[in-house]
Amino acid sequence: MVQDLVLALRLQALDRKIVSLENEISTLPKHIAEIEKRLESHMRRLEADRAALAANQRDRKKFETDIQLHEQKISKLKDQMLQVKTNEQYRAFQNEISFAEREIRKSEDKILDLMEQSEPLDKNVKAAEAKLKQEQQHVDAEKKRARERTAVDEKELAEIRAERKTIADQMESKLYTEYERIRKKTKNTPIADATEGRCDACHISLRPQFFQDLRRGDKIMFCESCGRILTYNPVIDVAADVTASQQTA
Which DSSP symbol is given to 45? Predict the structure, then answer.
């Protein structure tokens, strides 16, 4: 019976380690997803900065095209002025030329404004690119560590499961069946110590006779309250042990 209890205790330790490893293995993909989400935010920031810079460049191109059109119009108007025969027609052409020249100046002013705005926009893009590169390196390193950790955990998990099977095969079948039933019911805490006459898991006091039978250790006993397998674990009286050792000496 003592040997079966030792095996059950080892089995409980292995089961808890299995749960811990399984939890860690299942958590690692979530961790990777979280850091990839941070990477996505950097990518969106870079895309936004690039879009702002591209819009600035498009606007500058548009105003440059407008200037070319107005200059072409002015050139054409000046050619036509050579053929006018009245002062009224001449002034009309002059008005159109003046209007086109004003539009050119407006476009030139807007281009200057956009050029001033483009410098910080360009800096933003370069800073976002550098930050994205840095974050990408961090994510790649984290992924590598996660894959390596998962490989180590999976190898250890396989070894522990193999050891668990060996131990389970050594246990008396009826006890193993009870152990499994209690383990599933109590979330991997099928065994509890009995200290000072009570179960350490449910904290219910044990009947005096029951506790005496447990102390003999000649059979497997279960808590009458929570149903866990009990081990006798008397409280060590350090002072009494010291006194006894001194008397022996």
Answer: H
Tokens 């008396």 sit at which residue? Answer: 172
**138 token code pair:** 């961090």
Residues 72-120: pLDDT tens digits? Answer: 999 999 999 988 889 999 999 999 999 999 999 999 999 999 999 999 9
Residue 230, C-beta contacts closer than 8 angstroms, at least 6 positions apart: 191, 192, 193, 194, 199, 214, 221, 222, 223
Same structural domain, 68 and 42 = yes
Domain end among 123, 153, 170 = 170
In a domain, residue 189? The reply is: yes
Angle at 44 between CA 39 and CA 48, to 5 degrees: 150
> What whole-number distance in Å separates Cα of residue 115 and Cα of residue 209?
94
Same domain, 207 and 242: yes
- Cut 0.85: pTM above it: no
* Tokens standing for residue 84: 């006018």
Burial of 247 (C-beta count, 10 Å sphere; 0-12/13-18/19+): exposed
Look at residue 23 and give its three-state secondary structure. helix
pLDDT digits (tens, 9 = 90+) for 42-51: 899 999 999 9
Find out whether 206 and 194 touch, Cβ atoms under 8 Å.
Answer: yes
Q: Same domain for 67 and 111?
A: yes
Domain span including residue 204: 173-248
Domain count, the chain: 2
